Amino acid sequence: PKAVECIQKEWDKLVEKKAWDMRNPRSKWDVIAEARKSRFKAHFGRLFMICVEKGSELPVGSIDRKFKGRLVFQGNNVQDEHKDWAIFNDLGSNTASIEGAKLIDLFGLQPGHSIETADADQAYIQATLKNFTVEKERGADGKRRTIACQTWITIPDEFVPAWWRKLGIGNPVVRLDKALYGHPDAGGFWEQHLVEHLLAIGFKSAHENWR
Question: Could you give the CA distance from residue 158 to residue 4 in angstroms, rounded to a whole number?
Answer without folding.
Answer: 11
